[in-house]
């Protein structure tokens, strides 16, 4: 498959452990955020989103935390599985009619 | 399978040429988004159409243009190609406008190589 971002930061976790992937966003006016997962050779896949009027949102095995004070977003994956190995991107949207700006991505590697 | 289709899968062309990438959104989705992904610049939003109209613009070069047709499929035209245009080009679709509270589904991408 295609290699995305050969020099991405990498997070290695043991299978079964929890993973935390961090993202710093740039614009304090951003009010909508999305986490994407991209497996090798595939397009990005939506994981979870959060609006700026929330500071936490939970999905299936994933939690997104938003700290607007320091412009920081995190994605927590519970009980990480081999299938979670991928590159994870955060994206910020700066308002209606504005584009999405993506972070550089973090490569998650799940160790057996 | 996201339901979004893109053709071709791979495209190899020369500098100065013009190419057209095609995207068919998921059935019922009105929004189409185009993204460029390169190794050195990551994933960049290019442009979005909603029901045939341009709704948001990102880092799209003037040499690039797009449109969404009445049947909702979209084409991205890249002209006067340069080596730096080599990248993966993704199309995504969503039911609503701008993907806010509407999940974006990505296609498999078109790999463009400019020689």
Structure description:
Chain A is built from no helices and ten strands. By secondary structure, chain A is mostly beta strands. In chain A, the strands form two sheets. In chain A, strands 1, 3, 4, 8, 9 and 10 form a six-stranded mixed β-sheet that branches. Chain A has a four-stranded antiparallel β-sheet with strand order 2-7-6-5, with no helix packed on it. The radius of gyration of chain A is 14 Å and the shape is globular. The model of chain A has no long low-confidence stretch (mean pLDDT 89). Chain B has 115 residues and is mainly beta. In chain B, strands 2, 4, 5, 6, 9, 10 and 11 form a seven-stranded mixed β-sheet that branches. The chains are: A mainly beta (112), B mainly beta (115). At the A-B interface, strand 4, strand 8 and strand 9 of A face strand 5, strand 6, strand 9 and strand 10 of B.
Count of distinct strands of chain A: 10
Number of helices of chain A: 0
Mean pLDDT of chain B: 92
The succession of helices and strands of chain A, N to C, reads EEEEEEEEEE
Q: Runs of chain B with pLDDT <50, length 5+? A: none
Q: Biggest β-sheet of chain B: count, sense, barrel?
A: 7 strands, mixed
**Total beta-strand segments of chain B:** 11
Strand content of chain B: over 45%
| Structural classification of chain B | mainly beta
How far apart are the first and last residues' alpha carbons of chain A, in Å?
21 Å
Q: Which protein chains make the most extensive interface, counting residues with beta carbons within 8 Å of the other chain's beta carbons? A: A-B, 27 and 29 residues
Radius of gyration of chain A: 14 Å
- Describe the sheet with the most strands of chain A: 6 strands, mixed
Q: Give helix and strand order of chain B, one letter per element, not per position.
A: EEEEEEEEEEE
């Amino acid at each position: 498959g295609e290699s995305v971002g050969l020099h991405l930061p990498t997070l290695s976790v043991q299978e079964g452990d929890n993973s935390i992937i961090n993202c710093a966003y740039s614009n304090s006016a951003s009010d909508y955020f999305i986490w994407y997962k991209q497996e090798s050779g595939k397009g990005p896949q939506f994981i979870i989103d959060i609006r700026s009027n929330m500071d936490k949102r939970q999905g299936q095995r994933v939690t997104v935390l938003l700290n607007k004070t320091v412009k920081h977003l995190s994605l927590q994956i519970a009980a990480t599985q081999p299938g979670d190995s991928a590159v994870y991107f955060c994206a910020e949207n700066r308002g209606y009619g504005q584009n999405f700006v993506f972070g550089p991505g973090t490569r998650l590697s799940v160790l057996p | 399978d996201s339901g979004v289709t893109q053709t071709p899968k791979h495209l190899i062309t020369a500098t100065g040429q013009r190419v057209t990438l095609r995207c068919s959104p998921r059935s019922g989705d009105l929004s189409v988004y185009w993204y460029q992904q390169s190794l050195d610049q990551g994933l960049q939003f290019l442009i979005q159409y909603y029901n045939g109209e341009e709704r948001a613009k990102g880092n799209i070069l003037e040499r690039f243009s797009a449109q969404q047709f009445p049947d909702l499929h979209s084409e991205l035209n890249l002209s006067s190609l340069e080596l730096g245009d080599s990248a993966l080009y993704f199309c995504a679709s969503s039911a609503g406008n701008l993907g806010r509270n509407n999940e974006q589904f990505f296609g498999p991408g078109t790999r463009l190589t400019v020689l």
